[in-house]
Design a protein that fits this description.
This protein is mainly alpha-helical and 267 residues long. It is built from 10 helices and no strands. Helix 7 runs antiparallel to helix 8. The protein is globular. 43% of the residues are buried.
């Protein structure tokens, strides 16, 4: 996660609305170079701690809830899920993750990255939480961007978990051996599909959760004004750099852990 974070940092910077007097390159690779030259390597990790905390909670909640929902949706005879049920199980898991982990941690991470290029009011993640809560409260402050975040998480989990399980079911029916290489490849493909299909929600979420904050409609309108339809896919390259590898690693680890825990729970 720390090694991949500059990708996330640059993606977020590119998606944020450009401020007058604060030139920001549209190319995420140039963003990394500019920040490194002007602010040093530490600046590229602004908000990293918050993302790590959120990712641990998100993945734990997402996999636990997805497995529970998936088992309820399974065909009793074949033990598999249809593509539609796979997607529905993923969407449900994404909703749960957004409520309990993703929205508040993404709000703080995005606000820290945005604030670092302008006012620099926030001294740390904890200080950012205190300031945002004091000024705007829990719902309008910490949970700002909930709609965009939930749309992103529900669709991302649906496509990621759905794609992975569709590939896995296809391989099982064709007697393709499940091993580390297969799991990693399936996870990487799932990450790629997820990135392209959910990028608009990610961009809206980022605009909504900037330091100043914005409603979902305001974020949508500002993206259309700044970049048109293409603006919704701004930062895709950097996000791909993270999701392809993280998807492969995540599902590989998941299968290893599931192989150990499932017998303990009689699955």
């Amino acid at each position: 996660m720390p090694r991949q974070y500059p990708f996330e940092f640059a993606k977020t910077r590119v998606q944020l609305r450009h401020e007058r007097g604060v030139p920001t390159p549209r190319n995420p690779f140039l963003v990394v170079g500019q920040v490194f030259r002007e602010e040093g390597v530490r600046a590229l990790y602004k908000g990293c701690t918050t993302l790590i905390v959120g990712s641990i909670g998100k993945d734990g909640i997402r996999f636990l809830s997805f497995d529970t929902i998936k088992n309820a949706f399974k065909d009793p005879e074949t033990g598999t899920l249809t593509p539609v049920r796979n997607m529905l199980a993923g969407m449900s898991a994404g909703l749960v993750a957004s409520i309990f982990a993703v929205t508040p941690t993404e709000r703080i991470k995005t606000a820290l990255i945005d604030d670092a290029r302008t006012e620099r009011r926030f001294r740390s993640p904890v200080h950012a939480v205190r300031v945002i809560y004091k000024e705007d409260g829990l719902i309008k402050g910490i949970y700002r961007g909930f709609a965009g975040n939930t749309l992103k998480q529900a669709s991302a989990t649906a496509f990621r978990m759905g794609t992975y399980n569709i590939l896995k079911d296809f391989e099982n029916t064709h007697n393709i051996t499940q091993n580390t290489a297969t799991n990693f490849a399936n996870g990487a493909v799932a990450g790629t599909v997820t990135t392209y299909t959910t990028m608009p929600f990610d961009t809206i979420k980022t605009r909504s959760q900037s330091a100043k904050g914005a409603s979902t409609i305001e974020a949508f309108n500002s993206i259309m004004k700044d970049g048109g339809i293409k603006g919704f896919w701004r930062g895709t390259t950097m996000r791909l750099g993270r999701t392809i590898f993280s998807g492969g690693i995540l599902f590989t680890v998941y299968e290893q852990v599931a192989a150990i825990l499932n017998p303990m729970f009689g699955r």
